[in-house]
From TrEMBL:
Domain MIP18 family-like: 25-84
Segments forming a coiled coil: none
Domain PaaD zinc beta ribbon: start-end pairs: 152-200
Name this polypeptide is given: Phenylacetate-CoA oxygenase subunit PaaJ
Cited SUPFAM superfamilies: Fe-S cluster assembly (FSCA) domain-like
Pfam family, one: FeS_assembly_P
Entry superkingdom: Bacteria
């Protein structure tokens, strides 16, 4: 007995309706970021896509927060565990570097969670990838956490001074360009005296 797949049924790809994809999205939405466990890799914008490849294999696309991010191996492992636990194999995990991850991809909900966790979310938007949704060239972005305009550190530019995540004061002072990770700078609140990490926009 042969079972012929109808070709007409595939005329209109209904990606969201594929139950395996729906399950995979919901499973992966709960995978936390290894460095900031209060937010998920989806909320941070690290999880870019979950799709079925032509050979029927589940493809999970992730973009590291910066090149050489040491947490990426951990994230891939966590994704593999989550998919294995949900019996969603076979799958492959693809790391895509272009367009490069930007703090603009952090969801509003995640920004609130970061603040509640004691990390000042990135202020403003850098908009570097607004026009880059269709990468025409595979650009290998190098690490981009160089401070800009080091000569004019007195005037900190366009409202770049982060508000204290604990008391909301904008009387904050940068103590170090790097905080607990390279993505963050160490600040101190001049009002409540609390030191805090600031997730640098890039
Ligand atoms: Zn404060």
């Amino acid at each position: 007995m042969t079972h012929t797949a109808s070709t007409t049924a595939a005329a209109k790809p209904a990606r969201a309706a594929d139950p395996a994809l729906v399950r995979a999205w919901s499973v992966l939405e709960s995978v936390p970021d290894p460095e900031i466990p209060v937010v998920s890799i989806r909320e941070l914008g690290i999880l870019r896509d979950v799709r079925k490849s032509v050979d029927g294999v589940l493809e999970v696309v992730i973009t590291p927060t910066y090149s050489g991010c040491p947490a990426m191996a951990q994230i891939a492992e966590d994704i593999a565990h989550a998919l294995d636990d949900a019996d969603l194999g076979p799958y492959r995990i693809e790391t895509v570097l272009a367009p490069a991850w930007t703090t603009d991809w952090i969801s509003e909900a995640a920004r609130e969670k970061l603040r509640a966790y004691g990390i000042a979310p990135p202020s403003g938007r850098c908009g570097v990838n607004d026009a880059a949704s269709q990468p025409s060239v595979a650009v290998e972005h190098t690490i981009r956490f160089a401070p800009r305009a080091s000569n004019s550190s007195a005037s900190n530019g366009s409202g770049a001074t982060p508000a204290c995540p604990r008391c909301g004061s904008v009387h904050t002072q940068r103590l170090a360009q790097f905080g607990s990770t390279a993505c963050k700078a160490l600040y101190r609140c001049l009002d409540c005296r609390e030191p805090f990490d600031y997730f640098k926009p890039y």
